[in-house]
Write a structure and sequence with these properties.
This protein is mainly beta. It has one domain: SpoA-like (Surface presentation of antigens (SPOA), Roll). It contains one helix and four strands; from the N terminus they run E-H-E-E-E. Strands 1-2-3-4 form a four-stranded antiparallel β-sheet, with no helix packed on it. A hairpin with an 8-residue loop joins strand 3 and strand 4. It starts with 21 loop residues before the first strand and ends in a 7-residue tail after the last strand. One of its GO terms (biological process) is chemotaxis.
Amino acid sequence: MTDAPAETTGTNPFSQVPIEITISVGKARPLVRDMLRLQRDSVLPLDRRVDDPVELYVGDKLIARGELTEVEGDPNGQLAVRLTEVADLQNGL
């Protein structure tokens, strides 16, 4: 990562406020009757493939796209996202 501009670091009181980022891997549109049949080990197909990009949102605002990856060296196989595209929040994505 590169160093953040001075105006977004220590001098800005908002720079230490945590935000929640939601990672969207896909959507499903089952019928209600199919939802009522779901049980443990059921499979719910999504509208995306395993290697398709995921989308990162803050609230309902798309901020980036990326690919799922495992955290290197993590014995538990923790997931992470490698960014492939970052939104230009000033001018749109």
